Amino acid sequence: MAADGEGTRRPAAQPSVPASAAPLIALLDRLAGLPTAPDPPDGPVLDWVRRQVLAALAASGVVPVEDHGTVDPARHSVVATRTAPSGQLRDAIAATVRPGYLWGGTLLRPQEVVAYVLPGEPEPDGTGRTDDVDDVDDVNDIDDVNDIDEVDKVDEVDEVCATGAVSEEGDTRHE
Fold it and tell me: CATH classification of 21-34+42-163 is 2.30.22.10, yes or no?
């Protein structure tokens, strides 16, 4: 006869999103938002810090999402649009505003993109918004991303990192 606990298998513990992921992603966002001069003296230092933070995230299994090609609503959030130079580019990613992040198969944050649309066509997410931008920097002028929006996005990543709660689609659960 087996002793108590012998012969029974415990289910493997589900790994959780590394606690360091949310603050490191927030740090990368802040570094990307720093004003830059044509040849800033601290450019190499900031670039080194960015590479080190990305390496720390990669060591934790968190990788950036910087896709090209067609917009995928499961992985991308369209924040602005640009008129497509040809019909073949319709619904393609024109530029990345902010990278997304994946941990394992879990989307921690979607990649924020500018998408190509045909003239007068609504945004791919169906909002009807048609902010035609020529430069990714214009997106910040259009959206005027304020501190509250940034905190909300960091909180979403924090929520996933703390709870590991994800929907079947891979996005964070909002209850």
Answer: yes
